Amino acid sequence: MNSGKQYWRSLEERAQSKEFQEWVHREFPVDASIWEDEVSRRQFLKMMGASLALAGLTACQMPQEKIVPYVKQPEEIIPGKPLFFATAMPLSGYAMGLLVWSYEGRPTKIEGNPEHPASLGATDALAQGSVLQLYDPDRAQAVTEAGEISDWPSFFNDLDAAMADQRIKNGAGLRILTGTVTSPTLSRQIEAILRKFPAARWHQYEPVNRDNIRAGSQMAFGEIVEPVYRVDKADVILSLDADFLMEGPGRIRYARDFANRRRVRNGQTAMNRLYAVESTPTNTGAVADHRFSVRADEIEGIVHELSGGSPTRSWVGPVLRDLEAHRGSSLVVPGDQQPPVVHALVHALNHALGNVGHTIIYNQPVEARPTDQTESLRELVNEMRGSKVDLLVILGGNPAYDAPADIPFAEAMTKVNLRIHLGLYQDETSWLCHWHAPETHFLETWSDARAFDGTATIMQPLIAPLYEGKSVHEFLAAMLDQPGRKSHDIVRETWKLDDNRWHAALHDGVVPDTKSRQKNVTLRKFSAPSSPSHSGTEIIFRHDPGTYDGQFANVGWLQEWPKPLTRLTWDNAAWISPVTAHRMGVENGDVVELKYQGRSLEAPVWIVPGQRDDAVTVHLGYGRTKSGRVGTGAGFNAYTLRTADAPWFGGGLEIRKTGKHYPLSTVQHHQNMEGRDLVRVAPIEEFIRNPSFAHNEVDQPSLYPGYAYTDYKWGMSIDLTACIGCGACVVACQAENNIAVVGKEQVAKGRHMHWIRIDRYYEGSLESPDTFFEPVPCMHCENAPCELVCPVGATVHTDDGLNAMIYNRCIGTRYCSNNCPYKVRRFNFLQFSDIKTPSRKLQYNPNVTVRNRGVMEKCTYCIQRIESAKITAELQDRRVHDGEIVPACAQACPTRAIVFGDINDKASEVRQLKAQPHDYGLLVELNTRPRTTYLARIRNPNPEMKT
Amino acid sequence: MAQIFHPSTNTISRVSLFGALFFLAFLAWVVGAVYRSPYVTRQYAPIEQPVPFSHKHHVTDDGIDCRYCHTSVETSSFAGIPPTKTCMNCHSIIWRDAPILQPVRDSYRTGEPIKWERVDFVPEFVFFNHSIHIHKGVGCTTCHGPVGDMPLTWQATSMHMRWCVDCHRQPAEQLRPRSEVFNVNWQPPPNQAEWGEQLMKDYNVKSLIDCYTCHR
Amino acid sequence: MPSMPPPAEEPVVGPGYTYASVTEKISAIVLTRRTPRFWWAAFSTAFLFFLLLQVAIGYLFYKGVGIWGINIPVAWGFAIVNFVWWIGIGHAGTLISAFLLLMRQEWRTSINRFAEAMTLFAVACAGLFPLLHLGRPWVFYFLLPYPDTMRLWPQWRSPLVWDVFAVSTYATVSFLFWYVGLIPDLGSMRDRARNRFARALYGMLAMGWRGAARHWHRHQIAYLLLAGLATPLVVSVHSVVSFDFTIAIVPGWHSTIFPPYFVAGAIFSGFAMVLSLAIPIRKIYHLEDLITMRHLDNSAKILLATGLMVSYGYLMEIFTSWYSGNTFEQYMSHNRMFGPYAPVFWSVIFCNVLSPQVFWFKKMRQNIAVLFIVSIIVNLGMWLERFMIVVGSLHRDFLPSAWHMYYPTFWDLATLFGSVGLFVTLMFLFIRVLPMISISEMRELVGEKEEEAAETPAGGVS
Predict the structure, then answer these.
(1) What burial class does residue C30 get, using C-beta atoms within 10 Å of its C-beta: 0-12 exposed, 13-18 middle, 19+ buried?
(2) CB–CB of C194/C171 below 8 Å?
(3) Are the beta carbons of C177 and C230 closer than 8 angstroms?
(4) CA Rg, chain C, in Å?
(5) Measured between CB atoms, does A704 come within 8 Å of chain C?
């Protein structure tokens, strides 16, 4: 399939072309009359590959199906073959480059764009989930006026009237509120409006914003610059409360660069070293070689100590020496959550360490108009309260829900005469607006966005809008009296590219030479107004890994996705330390009252080893009241405690037990390894001393001759040193393999369906435990215990050594699962798959059967990709190349920890990895002979700090 | 005391006891037979189409190649059903007002596709790929029967898994040279057996009977 | 000198019974005596539970096995526990009727009939569960080797396939054995029945039995042959059932001691059930003279013996898990005794190891109340034992990350008690319409007694 990969050349003919529109109209239920009739629905199911309950209904006639061809076939579309389109996903304004699979005009699967600097071919869980958001039936489907269904014309009438008034007063009453804007087209349009209405204002607000970074560079350099890290060049990295592997616009790139410096192999033992100083457990801390737990407000003091102050902590000395020993190749990373002064001090520190220009460079800001967003919002609210605003246009975002608690946006906006919200959902904000206009999903429209390093991507639609949405560009065009102008033309106008360069840009997914220019900054003297260190229990705010700031709350995949550290699903929780829990006499799920700055909030607790006793961490993005069938009512809303002056942490939190209990669903109930040799770890010294410390090939003798795998011999290798436990693979697998979402109650019962899970174990003390991640897909054992016990041969071995699971033969005795020592098999205890919702069915991968009630399922190494690659190769009379088959998990992995391939191919990467001395198999003592093996985790602790 | 049963009862009971066994066996046989019968499989049953399209006419009389309409058969899993446009290529010139072609013209005018009846059906948990079969020298008629002689098209085989598996176990019996794949009048030579073996070597044909070959 | 029964031993038939009186006493229960109120009460209660079972099954087929508490890792729950339990109970019937027949244990006679019935009904209950627990019961026939259109066969290495054969064979043989034994009695019922319909019905079932010498001759041969066939099943069936576990690699399942230990357990629970049924019945129908203390006493002894075997099984499991040095096995044993399901383990110990020990004392064996209570306890204990094996082993196996608890739902319980309801319903129907004690064999017994009496002159000197 990959070799048949055919990028989109130019989409406009297609997206605009009459036949395509016709075809879309016919093919898509939501706006197609044809959907009503049973016949095409059947055909539709067939195209979805959705499994009708045919199996078993044997005594009746074979069903008679209809088959519906095109009238005029769009020439690019070959039925049954996927197309790939390059586009990008904007998150908080910053772009991540994507390649999207499309079957007969339906985007089904998101993958990273190797050409794109922020992706390098990988993605995170959010990007994987975004395709489900596209098909979300709860998305806003029509223009509504005060909740009543209306239409675009009447909306535009209203808008035009309001704009007319504004023209008279130069737009003195016009305010536009957006999120962070990096899109050249969007900013161009807004600037145009501002030119037209000089008195109008443009405000930006993101709940998860980069104010601290901006202010920090302002403080240090007197100008706003965008720090970009060259993690690939760093030998020693010190993270100061920064989860840089999981957060921020560069996270995926940084994770890859970080891992590339840790791929210990036979004879390749050089690796970087990471110190993580953090106030709450993060993935970055989990994979660090040294982790120090401090209060968030102590970080500033620590920076002072590092920049020449007198060390009060035992570890500061060694760390500093280590940094200095690597001048120019060390890197200090401040957390986005830390106040500006910390950023400023760290800039100075990196300067002092000679890292600037090597491991850290400063770029022109990527944002179109860098703003202190919190201030910008405060300003807007004050104006609204002062009734200075007559027309408020909110483009995306959900401020009524996520504005700081001490900036009463929702209340203030009621003072505005005409309030308009353009958004994907009818959310908390829309309900307070006169008009809600449905926005197009980023996969439905033309647009553009820039990555962390400024590289621009032109986003192209994968599908005509499912609902009657308009893109923000079309919306603004209407405000500029250019109604009906198409996004395509608007974007094209921004990029004055000739056809060839335009097509090239679309094809590659990046616009050449758009990187932001590097800036030579000079550190200026700045007085560091030390931010007040507070006393008492600390409250720490973080965005949720699954719902982000709340915008993904209605995406089932991301709700059910086990959060990397807690493995909690469907809820957020107040993280407390085991000691605190013991002191308060609370257990997981017991509800506590959090009192902070006179506001209070009730939340269930979750006991997190490594959490500080004097800190409670809460996650933003939950407690939505107007989200959708999935997101509404899940979790609690931490925004109600969050204030503008201390958006990320603050002191003086009171926590009180309420005696109430709230059930939380987790997928892992047992946190330690019970002394079993599951995750094998060693410091680099030991690896050098004894490279095969983890190796455990036990060759049990057998009376039977083993099977000779002469043709292909598929296998997988997972590098535990590289894995950062981000969980992108889990959602990628779910998207690729049509894995069902089962819901909170079923998860609590132990019936989640993920084919690959990331086990998380703790070892050592509860205060500062070592955290280990271990991805566990099907091991495809050569002696598979599951195969022996299946009474009907529904799970059998193939010639290339795969452990096949045949759904239509399975009768559901579940014996195979009992006998699977890895417990990677998943069972459809009920009808979990959604085979009813029409829009949901559009996402299903047509090459994978949708499993119905009563059958077992499990990881197949993405057999559909293997088979199509084999067929492609056979059609060209050749063997499958190494790397031609990439399973969804490996494809999504930011650190390339997962490698798949043919073990019989001498040159294959997987074979090289399995030949490594520290390669080991899980539970091989059971003589299962797993095809999935692991590379033991190697750590690089500072010899000076041996404990 | 009066007899409850008439003496004949003895015979009746004996007969019915033994008869029962045979009857059950017979019943089982009937079920099996019906399940394999064309009534259930729809084998050999010409299927009414919105337009009475005759493969016999187009293929045998006009000698149109399969690929003229089924364009993606060599490249994709799906052979492809011709869009109305393809019909109109000719029928805008010949038979342009033939009443039976009215649906085609309507479709072309309205953009409403013609809804053909599917002839060969595999359930959705079966993933069949046309291109690879063609490439390995499996002819159209091997599975679709004597299409050239079909005024209305019918399903030529039972489409039972058994039928697929038999060929997948012994491909040699069914292979033909690639050049002959689209020849509807192809007849296997007398020495098909060893010839097939040779083709298997030439085309690198393996006997694929892993479940994953078709079920994913 | 003919062997006199040792004085200590009570007779297996009360004194003063003749052919006529025996026949009369047994057949009257069905034909003449009016059905006791107790029967109606018990039957209707049981029937209610039977209805509950039907509701549970209906809902199960509508929704899927997800209505139960099962999950991953505990993919087998009540269904399999009940299956093993019922099959086990069945065994006592076969043992008594076939095995003891071959051993010429005359005391078996008066209890073998309903023991066999018990077997039949227990197997019927057991047979339900393998079907119900399937995720897709509508394709159960994939389990059978039949000429299909897919060129596929069952996977012969799987114990579940062996089960299909073991259980179906067991059901067939048990039925034949029971029915053949019934034929002469059906004859006498036909002759004694008054109303026409009953006579016709028994007549048909009697298959023209005339009690002619030839009939008796053949009947004896057939009966012995079937006994010969049934006896190995006592051992084989439950061994096969135990393979469901031993073949798997799950710690707590993968153990060579299972077959004997399961068979012993089966007989253990079976006899417990015999007692639980026999004691009330003999009381209600005043059969103290036919089901005498001798029977109860012997059954109690068997309970004690098999109880000890089972205890040995427990002991050996723990020993081997320790001795194996296998961390997973060791953890399993420890977890079984002190883990979340520890209460189950300790109740099993109490029910199956401690409680039968009272039968070392004759006094206890003679005490109806004690017998009854202990028999109930043992039944309970054996069910718990299967729960311990199935759930207790699955919920914590190899990878701690996958460990998960199992909690039964309402529907689990409904199915369990429903199946008990089905069992009792069938049992009471049987008591109502068929002679629950073998008339013909009792006649033989009486006959032997009379001969003995004739041989010894009154107050005979020796």
Answers:
(1) buried
(2) no
(3) yes
(4) 24
(5) no
Q: Which pLDDT belongs to residue A73? A: 67
Contacts of residue A677, defined as CB under 8 A and 6 or more positions apart, other chains included, come to: A696
Cis peptide before A683 (omega within 30 of 0): no
Dist CA A331 CA B25 (whole Å): 82
Residue A582 has a pLDDT of 93
Beta strands in A621-742 (DSSP E): 649-661, 665-666, 681-683, 714-719
Give residue A45's pLDDT.
32
- C232: which DSSP letter? H
Torsion of CA A138, A618, A280, A240, to 10 degrees: 70
Percent of chain C with pLDDT over 90: 54
Q: Among B13, B32, B162, select the one facing C207 at the smallest CB separation.
A: B13
Say what angle helices C78-94 and C159-192 make with each other, to 10 degrees: 50
SS3 A265: strand
Q: Which of B3, B4, B11 to mutate to test the interface with C (most CBs of C within 10 A)?
A: B4
Q: Where does chain B show beta strands of DSSP type E?
A: 116-117
Burial A116-136 (b: 16+ CB within 10 A, else e): bbbbbbbbbbbbbbbbbbbbb
Q: With H, G, I as helix, E, B as strand and everything else as coil, classify residue B49.
A: coil
Distance CA C181, CA C194 (A): 23
Q: Do A814 and C76 touch (CB under 8 A)?
A: yes
Asked whether the beta carbons of A587 and A244 are under 8 A apart, the reply is no
Inter-chain contact A871–B83, Cβ cutoff 8 Å? no
> Looking at residues A250-271, what average pLDDT do you find?
93
What's the angle, vertex CA A684, arms to CA A682 and CA A686, rounded to 5?
A: 60
Query: How far apart are alpha carbons A468 and A448 in whole angstroms?
Result: 21
3-class DSSP string for A775-837: EECCCCCCCCHHHHHCCCCCEEECCCCCEEECHHHCCCCCHHHHCCCCCCCEECCCCCCCCCC
Tell me if A874 and B135 make a contact (CB, 8 A cut-off): yes
Question: Is B5 in Cβ contact with C203 (below 8 Å)?
Answer: yes
CA distance C462 to C459: 10
Q: Which residue from B121, B135, B136 is facing A62, i.e. has the nearest CB?
A: B121
Closest C-alpha to A721, from A935, A548, A522, A511: A935
Chain B residue closest in CA terms to C192: B1
Closest Cα of chain B to C143: distance in Å?
17
Interface predicted TM-score (ipTM) of this complex, two decimals: 0.91
**Neighbouring chains to B with at least 3 Cβ pairs closer than 8 Å:** A, C
Interface residue A37 vs chain B (CB under 8 A)? no
Cβ count near A153 (within 10 Å)? 10
Q: Hey, what are A842's tokens? A: 């559009």
- Between positions 515 and 534 of A, the ones with CB within 8 A of C are none
Q: Is 70 exceeded by the pLDDT of residue A628?
A: yes
Put simply, the chain A residues between 53 and 92 with a CB less than 8 A from any chain B CB are 54-55, 58-73, 78-81
Per-position DSSP letters for A438-466, written without gaps between them: EBPPTTSS-EEEE-TT--EEEE--SS--S
Q: In chain B, what is the greatest distance between 2 CA atoms, to the nearest angstrom?
A: 96
**Distance (Å, rounded) from C-alpha A662 to C-alpha A604?**
6
Q: Does the CA dihedral A909-A910-A915-A920 come out positive or negative?
A: positive
Is the pLDDT confidence value at C456 over 90? no
Asked if B166 and C199 come within 8 Å (Cβ–Cβ), the reply is: no
Inter-CA distances, C22 with C26, C219, C429, C439, Å = 6, 21, 22, 7
Reported as a single tens digit per residue, the pLDDT across C351-360 is 999 999 999 9
The DSSP letter of residue C351 is: I
What's this model's pTM, rounded to 2 decimal places? 0.89
Mean pLDDT of chain C, nearest integer = 87
CA distance linking residue A632 with residue A624, whole number of Å: 5
Tokens 């020496």: give the residue. A321
Say whether residue B42 is in contact with chain A using an 8 A CB cutoff. Answer: yes
